[in-house]
C-alpha cells in the first residue's frame, strides 16, 4: 500500500509533493491534469491514495473525484486546494473525498494526513495481517512476536508501537503520530517516551541494537520499519 498518485497542475507544487513523499518511502505517480491522472490510475489499480488538486485545467478535481468513486470505493482520495470556503470542503467530501488539505501545507502535515488515511484503510482490511521479514514474525491478530522462532516478550505499549510501524509497510511514521496513536491525543507526559520505547523494542528484536536495521530512524521526523529483508547475518 505504498503507491500514491499526485494530480496537480502546478509544477512547483507537484515537484514539492513528489520529493517529500519519496523521502518517506512512497512510490509516486504524477499527472498535471485530471484526464492524464485517470489514465494513470486505470493502468495502476494498486495505487492506494490519490492526492487530487481541485482547480485543474479541463476536468476539475471535484469531477475527477466523482468519476473515480463511481468505479472504485476503496482508493483513498485527499483533495488539495488553496480555497478555504467551507462549501468547497463539503463539495469535495460529498463527491467522495476522504480528506481535505489546504494550501500551503508543510511536508510533515501532508505526509501525516496520507499516513492517517492509510492506517484507516488498513484497519478495515488487514486485521489478520502477518509480517515475517528479517527473521522476525509479527502476528497482529494474536499479538505474538517471534525472532528466529523464539518468542519475544513485548509490553502492550511496545507491541502497539511495533504494530503501527509494521502495518505502515515501509513508510515512515512521525513521532507525533506514534505518540497520538499509542498514548492518545491527551497524553501530557514527555514526548521522548516514543524514543525510549523504540530503543526497548530494538534491544529485543534487532541483531545489533547499536546499528538497527529493522526499525530505521528518519531524522527529523520519526521511524520506519524496513520491510526489504535482511540476510542471515542481519545485514
TrEMBL record:
<keyword id="KW-0804">Transcription</keyword>
<dbReference type="Pfam" id="PF00072">
    <property type="entry name" value="Response_reg"/>
</dbReference>
<keyword id="KW-0902">Two-component regulatory system</keyword>
<dbReference type="InterPro" id="IPR036388">
    <property type="entry name" value="WH-like_DNA-bd_sf"/>
</dbReference>
<dbReference type="Pfam" id="PF00486">
    <property type="entry name" value="Trans_reg_C"/>
</dbReference>
<dbReference type="InterPro" id="IPR001789">
    <property type="entry name" value="Sig_transdc_resp-reg_receiver"/>
</dbReference>
<keyword id="KW-0805">Transcription regulation</keyword>
<protein>
    <submittedName>
        <fullName>DNA-binding response regulator</fullName>
    </submittedName>
</protein>
<dbReference type="InterPro" id="IPR039420">
    <property type="entry name" value="WalR-like"/>
</dbReference>
<feature type="modified residue" description="4-aspartylphosphate">
    <location>
        <position position="53"/>
    </location>
</feature>
<feature type="domain" description="Response regulatory">
    <location>
        <begin position="3"/>
        <end position="118"/>
    </location>
</feature>
<dbReference type="InterPro" id="IPR001867">
    <property type="entry name" value="OmpR/PhoB-type_DNA-bd"/>
</dbReference>
<dbReference type="GO" id="GO:0000156">
    <property type="term" value="F:phosphorelay response regulator activity"/>
</dbReference>
<feature type="domain" description="OmpR/PhoB-type">
    <location>
        <begin position="128"/>
        <end position="227"/>
    </location>
</feature>
<keyword id="KW-0597">Phosphoprotein</keyword>
<dbReference type="GO" id="GO:0032993">
    <property type="term" value="C:protein-DNA complex"/>
</dbReference>
<dbReference type="InterPro" id="IPR011006">
    <property type="entry name" value="CheY-like_superfamily"/>
</dbReference>
<keyword id="KW-0238">DNA-binding</keyword>
<dbReference type="GO" id="GO:0006355">
    <property type="term" value="P:regulation of DNA-templated transcription"/>
</dbReference>
<feature type="DNA-binding region" description="OmpR/PhoB-type">
    <location>
        <begin position="128"/>
        <end position="227"/>
    </location>
</feature>
<dbReference type="GO" id="GO:0000976">
    <property type="term" value="F:transcription cis-regulatory region binding"/>
</dbReference>
<dbReference type="GO" id="GO:0005829">
    <property type="term" value="C:cytosol"/>
</dbReference>
Amino acid at each position: 500500500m505504498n503507491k500514491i498518485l499526485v494530480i496537480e497542475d502546478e509544477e512547483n507544487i507537484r515537484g514539492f509533493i513528489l520529493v517529500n513523499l519519496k523521502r518517506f518511502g512512497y512510490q509516486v505517480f504524477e499527472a498535471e491534469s485530471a484526464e492524464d491522472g485517470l489514465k494513470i490510475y486505470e493502468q495502476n489499480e494498486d495505487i492506494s491514495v490519490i492526492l487530487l488538486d481541485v482547480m485543474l485545467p479541463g476536468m476539475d478535481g471535484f469531477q475527477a473525484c466523482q468519476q473515480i468513486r463511481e468505479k472504485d470505493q476503496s482508493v483513498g482520495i485527499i483533495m488539495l486546494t488553496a480555497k478555504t470556503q467551507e462549501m468547497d470542503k463539503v463539495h469535495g467530501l460529498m463527491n467522495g473525498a476522504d480528506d481535505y488539505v489546504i494550501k500551503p501545507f508543510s511536508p510533515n502535515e501532508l505526509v501525516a494526513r496520507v499516513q492517517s488515511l492509510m492506517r484507516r484503510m488498513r484497519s478495515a482490511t488487514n486485521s489478520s495481517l502477518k509480517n515475517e521479514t528479517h527473521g522476525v514474525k509479527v502476528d497482529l491478530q494474536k499479538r505474538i512476536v517471534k525472532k528466529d522462532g523464539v518468542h519475544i516478550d513485548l509490553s502492550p505499549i511496545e507491541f502497539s508501537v511495533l504494530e503501527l510501524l509494521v502495518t505502515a509497510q515501509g513508510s515512515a511514521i512521525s513521532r507525533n503520530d506514534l505518540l497520538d496513536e499509542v498514548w492518545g491525543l491527551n497524553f501530557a507526559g514527555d514526548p521522548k517516551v516514543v524514543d525510549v520505547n523504540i530503543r526497548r523494542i530494538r534491544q529485543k528484536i534487532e541483531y545489533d541494537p547499536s546499528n538497527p536495521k529493522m526499525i530505521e530512524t528518519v531524522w527529523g521526523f520519526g521511524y520506519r520499519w524496513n520491510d526489504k529483508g535482511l540476510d542471515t547475518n542481519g545485514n
